[in-house]
Amino acid sequence: MKALMFGWEFPPHILGGLGTASYGLTKGMAMQEDMEITFVIPKPWGDEDQSFLKIIGANNTPIVWHDVQWDAVKSRYEQFMSPQDYYDLRDHIYADFRYMHTNDMGCVEFSGRYPQNILEETNNYSIVAGVIARTYNFDIIHAHDWLTYPAGLHAKSITGKPLVIHVHATEFDRSRGKPNPTVYNIEKDGMDHCDHIVCVSNLTRKTVIENYNQPPEKVTTVHNAVDPLAPEIESIERLSGVPEKVVTFLGRITMQKGPEFFVDAATQVLKNTKHIRFVMAGSGDMMNQMIRLVADRGISDKFHFTGFLRGKQVYEMLKSSDVYVMPSVSEPFGISPLEAMQCGVPSIISYQSGCAEILENVIKTDYWDVDAMADAIYSICTYPAMAEYLKTEGKKEVDNIKWEDAGLKIRKIYDRLVH
Questions:
Q1: 113 and 246 share a domain?
Q2: Residue ranges with strand state E in 178-333
Q3: pLDDT tens by residue, 314-339
Q4: Residue 58: CATH number of its domain
Q5: Residues 6 or more apart from 217 whose CB is under 8 A from it?
Q6: What is the Cα–Cα distance from 373 to 326, expressed in whole angstroms?
Q7: Cβ atoms within 10 Å of 289's Cβ, excluding its own
Q8: Distance from first CA to last CA of the chain, Å, rounded?
Q9: Do residue 78 and residue 201 come from a single domain?
Q10: What range does the domain containing 321 cover?
Q11: In 10 A of CB 144, how many CB atoms?
Q12: What is the β-pairing status of strands 347-350 and 36-41?
């Protein structure tokens, strides 16, 4: 089975959970002997692990370009479709060649990030996808998250191969229920015209069925998993010089993640004890707002902001924590609690997260129930037996949540669509 996958990021250059999930899933799927994966991203950096898949850079794919004349553009597609079909497709995939800017090699430039002109990059990515789809041999197309849905649709339209879209999050999650109509339309168009939809949780599946009007039989839940810790990560020890208990929030500081509820819980806990410190590790558009909120609450002496952490820094932070908290308002899955539990860190998660569907040895609260969250933090930090139970049983649990199993579920979908 040969899969052509479209993604947006890949380790070690990741800005969120999408890259982590893409790496874990593809590595798990590659354990199937007959599985070949070609993974496309806008801009590879050259140090990605390609031991189990082939990475293609959209920015390294030449686009023949002479002049911005529709007749010249159309001629490149006439062997695959009629002129009217081409114009219909161009509108359908949000592709406008007037945005296209190429370098001296005839390749489109991409930032490799999530820039201000993200819709323009999504548009250009979908155009390059057509060239890639005609270049490589594959059985099925798999598009990860909304940024790649137009690319997947273009590849499907060119080749006729079945398309699976993987919903790692929806606009309803990112916007707290107030979706950007342009992004929503891209998401819905991908869902409407693909052959099957994979969601990372039942929570997300419910959103896809109810808010995007998709038939239930077209939507399958495949929960995320976690990679085993590498030996060099296993050997990381707790950072020295911190005698107090450490409670950590680690993730994007955005409204989806509920950082203000973490600050509220910290305020409650610090009313009763002074032997706990709080850390907000990450960056995002609410960071300055959270710094001001911490100052207003008068807890700055017990609250720390690390900024964005990557790679080994993430695990150094987790291994130096006594409690991990994920108070997400709407979390499609949430891999970070699994990583924390792997490191032996007792974890508190919101019921409004997809991972709450599969995790048992954690404390679960509603994201808005600050009192319950504060009680859980205080209890774990105060009662050693409780902390030890969550540490031991939590690690046992997540060690059995494997990407290989998720990959087998995806493979069943592939086999059904291809055969």
A1: no
A2: 196-199, 219-221, 245-250, 276-281, 303-307, 323-326
A3: 999 999 999 999 999 999 999 999 99
A4: 3.40.50.2000
A5: none
A6: 10
A7: 15
A8: 11
A9: yes
A10: 231-398
A11: 28
A12: unpaired
